[in-house]
Each structure stands twice: as C-alpha cells, then as structure tokens.
Specification:
Blueprint: E1 13-15, H1 23-39, E2 42-46, H2 52-66, H3 70-74, E3 86-88, E4 93-95, E5 98-100, E6 103-108, H4 138-164, E7 182-188, E8 198-203, E9 209-214, E10 221-225, E11 228-231, E12 239-243, H5 245-250, E13 260-263, E14 271-278, H6 293-296, H7 314-325, H8 327-333
Parallel strand pairs: 1-2
Antiparallel strand pairs: 2-12, 3-6, 4-5, 6-7, 7-14, 8-13, 9-12, 9-14, 10-11, 10-13
Helix pairs in contact: 1-4, 2-4
Length: 338
C-alpha cells in the first residue's frame, strides 16, 4: 500500500508486511516508521496479519457485552477489583479531572495477584486476575486472542524502531520479557451537545505503544498537530498506532508522544473501540537509545509537564495514571493511599 504524505489533513499509512519483503522493503518501512513518529507520533498500520475474522468477532462480542443487563455488568465493576480491572460504568473515569463519557471494561494479563507486603512496590497491585462476565464466556476467549496477536505486532514494531534509530533490534526485548499487556473495550454513546463533548479528554499515553482499532464508520478521534486538532477517522482494516511517553523518554524526545482526544458521537450513534497498550514489565525501566548524530540533532528533549512528572519505571507511571483516572477504585480498595 502506498504511504500517504504527512499533512494537516491525514495521518500516514504504514504497511507492516514490508518487513517480510526485500531488504529494501524493510528499510523503507523502518524509515517511514521513524519519520511518522518523529513528525506526528501517530499513523495507520495495515499489513499487520491480524485476521479480519478476529476483528469482526471482537466487535460482535463487545456489542454483546455492552448489551448485557446493567446488573450483570456491575457484578464485575472495577471498584471490586484491587487490580483496576473490570467494568467501568458510564462517567466512571476521568482525564485530568474531567469526566469521560464512556463505559468500558479493562483487561490485562491473567496472572496471580502479588501480595503487597512490606517493601513491595505499590504498582504490583496492577498485576492479578481479570473480572469476566459469567454470562459471556466468549469475552475472555476473544480478549486473550486479541492481546496475543497484538503482542506480536507490538514486538515487531519495537524491533523496527530500534533499528530505525541506529540501535540493535533487540534493544527493548529485555524490558518486555515479562510484559504487561492491557486492553480496553470502550463504548461511547451518542450525546446532544452544542459544543464537542468529551468522550475522552486530551492526553498523551503514558506507556510505550498503543494500537487502537475503531469500529468502521465511527469518527471522533482527534490528534494534535501544529497546535490544531485534526481528525483521524478509522480506515477499514487498519489500526491507529501511537507512541507513549516512555518511548519519547527513550529517544530524548526524537520520537513524539502526541496529545489526542475522543469527541462523543452525535445523538443516536454509538462508537465502539478497542485500544491495546503494549507495556513492558511493571518493574522495567525503558532503555535509552544513543541516537546517531544526525538524529540527535533533531531531538528536542522530553516534553516535561510539572503537574504530571514521569517516572522511569513503567509500573510507577501506570499506577499514577490508574489512581488519577479511577479514584473510586482507590477509595474502595486502597483508602490509605489517598
């Protein structure tokens, strides 16, 4: 597929299958990947090998979940999970103190809980079992397959980034030896509003890499470009990919974590999306890359927000985000943290 030029009207389209082609094809993909995430921080990804059947099944299952009776969804509400997993009711999450208007379920790797004994970092609270609706066993099956497929895609992208920046392909492998994958399945209902309503407020992703799939025909995602908001409508069969703040840290700002937001759909329309966050081990520190001189000259440094300090350890950043977004979970599970 031809890569579209980066402009104020569109995001570039990258074809991951180029990595399976000739040496020139692979080099072209790495160069396009480097440019897209240096200049914009967002792109569409095709050629990813995630089956269309899985995508269709995931969205069918998502619709079935949100159609469950309210009491069945609330039976797995996130306030009952010490791991910030499960169902978030409409208006139950915040971005920068403002309410996001969506309902969702948060799902991570299915692992035993880590006892928070003395000396254990609080971020280990994020590891543990999920909450699954008993009435919809298909949700677990499709979610685990989704995360497994996208783990492969995320690993390929990180290896390509490393090489594109003059580093060994395995630069990030150790940090992801015990990864922390996370996904949301989110539903944005239509609203009546004179001004754009906040589905999700403007923010940068705090981790390493996000792969988002949005239901076809449903806009709402906007990306900040040169101080303005540009639309990033879904393209059939394509993931929207963006980097998080830790990849910006790893490259001294050469790769760019970009603000984005979601505008609520109009009344009578709903929007379903599935973001996947490709995270390293909770106790991992993302490695820094010594850039070639010509790239280092274009690295502006990390964009620091004094009100939102970044931690080099992934788990500390992730827990900070969970606490800010889900204060009700903290109140229910960890009141001594407040």
């Amino acid at each position: 597929m031809t890569t579209l030029p980066i402009s104020a009207q569109t995001l570039p389209i990258l074809d991951l299958s180029l990595l399976d082609g000739s040496a020139d094809d692979a080099a072209r993909f790495r160069d396009e990947l480097r440019r897209a995430t240096h200049e914009v921080g967002f792109f569409y990804l095709v050629g990813h090998s995630v089956p269309a059947e899985l995508i269709e099944r995931a969205f069918d299952t998502a619709r079935a979940f949100f159609a469950l009776p309210e009491e069945q969804k609330l039976a797995i509400e996130n306030v009952t999970s010490p791991h910030f997993r499960g169902y978030t009711r409409m208006g139950g999450e915040q971005t920068l103190g403002q309410t996001d208007w969506r309902e969702q379920i948060d799902i991570g790797a299915e692992r035993p809980a880590v006892p928070l004994t003395e000396g254990v970092e609080r971020y280990w609270s994020l590891e543990g079992p999920n909450l699954w609706p008993a009435e919809l066993p298909a949700l677990r099956e499709v979610s685990e397959e989704w995360m497994a497929r996208l783990d492969v895609v995320g690993t390929r992208l990180l290896r390509a980034w490393a090489e594109a920046l003059g580093a060994p392909a395995d630069t990030f492998d150790e940090a992801f030896a015990h990864p922390s994958p996370h996904m949301k399945i989110a539903r944005y209902p239509g609203v009546t509003a004179e001004q754009p309503a906040q589905g999700v407020g403007a923010h940068k992703d705090l981790g390493v890499l996000t792969l988002l799939y949005v239901e076809e025909g449903r806009g709402g995602l906007q990306v900040e470009k040169d101080g303005e908001w540009i639309d990033a409508p879904p393209i059939d069969g394509a993931f929207v990919v963006n980097i998080g703040e830790l990849l910006e840290i790893a490259t001294d700002g050469y790769l760019k974590a970009t603000k984005h937001r979601v505008i609520s759909p109009a009344e009578g329309i709903e929007r379903i999306s599935i973001p996947y966050f490709h995270g390293p081990a909770l106790d991992a520190t993302i490695p820094t890359i010594e850039l070639p001189a010509e790239l280092a000259a274009e690295a502006p440094g990390v964009d620091v927000d004094p009100s939102n300090p970044l931690h080099p350890v992934f788990g500390r950043n992730w827990l900070k985000s969970r606490i800010r977004a889900h204060r009700n979970v903290v109140e229910a599970q960890y009141p001594d943290w407040l």
